[in-house]
Structure formats: structure tokens, C-alpha cells
Fold:
Amino acid sequence: MFFPFYFDIRYLLFSLPALLLALFAQWRVQSAYRKYSRIRNMRSITGVEAARVLLRANGLTHVDVQPARGVMSDHYDPRKKVLRLSKGVAQNASVASLGIAAHEVGHAVQDQVDYALFRVRSGLVPVVNLGTWMGMILFFAGVLIQLSGLVWLGIIFFSGSVVFAFVTLPVERDASRRALQMLTAEGLVGTTDVQGVQAVLSAASLTYVAGMAQAVSQLLYFVLLATGMGRRD
Structure:
């Protein structure tokens, strides 16, 4: 009998390291955000004010800045050309707010300059959303009916999430690099502020490393199961 991964102790061996890394990354992000959201930045400028300064400096006055619901839900929407900032970032004149707002402006700049990996990631979003969902269905359907071809088809669909994770990491790191450059060029940060911004952005980057590790470990486990199933056939 061929059981899904949740009955298999090997799944823990594959997933546990990535899970621990994800938990550590989440702790680092929350810790850095909590610390530097309490430290006022040198210019006493809020996240929304910083975003508008940086957008204007890069000729992106057509990009609107809007509120986002939730905590640390900040993002840039390339389809609508809108930068959305959470309340804690938009209204807080903290070091953390500077880093997060500048990071999202970094994505807007990537969009403006037609940064290749940003375009690739944006194009992958709908494909990966559908592919991951379909991949899981096909994989487990293949497992249940013992059809290895269907299992491998599910793996192929699911592998899109791994490609997305590998593309996302350099895109996010590039946005952080641009953020630091822009903040420095516009004189929005002092020496202490830079250290805090780097700490916040570095912690956020680790979450993408963890996401990539989780996607890879999941894919490798699926491949292991499919290979074992093929040998049985």
C-alpha cells in the first residue's frame, strides 16, 4: 500500500530543516521589526512620506501610495501601479518604516526599468498559483489510484513553485539594495538608521531563503515518493 506523505516519517526528515529555518526567519523578522519600529529615524519622516520622496526622486509620480490592511502586508502592485503600505509602516516615523517603504519603492523602480527577473516573477504569479494547486491535486490523485504517470505530472506542475522561489530571492535582494541606495542618495538615513534598515531588510530576505528551502524540500520528497512508486510498478 502506498501512503501519502503525512503517514511517512521520511517527510519529517525532508521538511523539518526547512520548517525550522522558516520559524527562525519569522522570529528574526518580527524581532527586527519590533525593535526598529520603536526607534525614530533621523529625519522623523513616516513611511508614506519616505515613499513619496523616493517615488518622486525616481520619476514615479504616477505611482499611487495607498493603505494596506494587516501588519507587514506592504507590497507593490505592478498591474495597478500602486504601492500599498500597512498602517504601522505608513504612519510611523521609525527606522523600520523607512526600510520597508524604500524596499517597496525598490520594486516600483524594478518595474520602471524593466528589471528582467521582476518581469519573470510577475509573469509567473498566475501560472504558479494555478500550477501549485493543480500539482497537489494531480500528485495525490496519482498516489491514491497508484498511477505513477499522474504523480509525475503533478510534480511537474508543482515544480513551478520552486522556480518561483528561486526567482523571488534575487528580486527581493535587488529591491533591498536599491532601497539602501535611494535612502542614502536622498539623505533620508544617518549611520544608525542604515544599520537598522539593513537589519530589517536582511531579516526579511531570510524569509525568502526559507521559502525556497521549503519548496525544494517538498519537491524532493515528492520525487522520492514518485521514484519509489515507479520501482514498484
Summary: The chain has one domain: 5-232. The first helix runs from residue 9 to 36. Helices lie at 9-36, 47-57, 87-90, 95-112, 116-145, 148-185, 191-232. The two ends are 12 Å apart (CA to CA).
